[in-house]
Amino acid sequence: MSHLPDTKRYEQMKYRYAGHSGLQLPELSLGLWHNFGTESDYKVTSDIICTAFDHGITHFDLANNYGPVAGSAEQRFGNILNDQLASYRDEMIISSKAGYYMWPGPYGEWGSRKYLISSCDQSLKRLKLDYVDIFYHHRPDPNTPLEETMGALAQLVRQGKALYVGISNYHAHEAMQAKQILDDLSCPCILNQVRYSILDRWTEKDGLLDAMDNQIGMICFSPLAQGLLTGRYLDGTIPVGSRASENRFLSSDSITAEKVAMLNKLNQIAVQRGQTLSEMAISWLLKDPRVTSVLIGASSVAQLKENLKAIEQEIPFTQKELADIDTLTL
Using an 8 Å Cβ cutoff, are 27 and 15 in contact? Predict the structure, then answer.
């Protein structure tokens, strides 16, 4: 597919610094968690990725186990990059992670140096890249010394396999311990990727943003709460093909009358703001300047463009709107 002129591309997106670093990420990043592996249509995934880039989404987020099948999202993205976007590599931020189960035996998950270095090497082969821009540890490991895990991340930077490092799913106390270790190794931690949405606010109770104090940026995944904030469930039915209909990351039992009523009240606030429920959910996250970027997924170009509408114009939240949202969700 043809690409928009560079000036047009970057006019459509705003960028924020990742923690205390010089790296800027787009306010919306594209996550390739579940719809970009070999079980998905190549042309559809290619069109989504290229359309995202043409709209200023320069950050593409992967992990070793993304697919399905595990590893195939990196392989698919590497092929699309070579076929469609190779000349734009220096305009792109490509990230990957390791921490969850990837291969059998004691060296195929968690946070040992053995696993992280091997996993990064495998990811680079699948991506057909010499380096990733950001490499994350995907989850805390209760059995490996944090010094070993963070030391492995720093080693990847020294080896030129990653330009920056981050952590994912780390709570406040864990994140600050990791930051200190990486600071001592002269390898700053620039991002903590965590689950955060209007409906999932553990980060607030944990004090994570306050603890990181802009020294580490936050990038949020599941901003639409596995589809609950898309508006698909407002009439109380479960659409065929939805995650709830397949009990895929969202249980059909969770679509209760009480939850539907709450979602409709949230939707009323969104409508009064001139937004859809999903647009408001993304705007709600971006209202905090300490949030570096919001990770969106997409199964179609149309869905991607719907999410992009959230940043077309800034609509500030009133104190009453924020208070009403809190009353419904806290």
Answer: yes
Instruction: Pick the closest to residue 149 from 160, 159, 129, 135 (CA basis).
Output: 135
Question: Model confidence over 62-75: pLDDT tens digits?
Answer: 999 999 999 999 99
The arithmetic mean of pLDDT across residues 142-148, rounded, is 98
User: What domain count does the chain have?
Assistant: 1
Which band of pLDDT confidence, cut at 50, 70 and 90, is reported for residue 237?
A: confident
The tens digit of pLDDT for each residue in 76-88 reads 999 999 999 999 9
How much is the pTM?
Answer: 0.94
Partners of 215 in beta bridges:
none
Q: What's CA 72's distance to the chain center, in Å?
A: 18
| Residue pointed to by tokens 């719907």 | 306
Query: At 203, which CATH number?
Result: 3.20.20.100
13: domain range? 6-232+280-315
End-to-end CA distance of the chain: 45
- Which DSSP string do the residues of 54-111 spell out, in sequence order? HTT--EEE--TT-TTTTTHHHHHHHHHIIIIIGGGGGG-EEEEEE-S--SSSTTSSTT
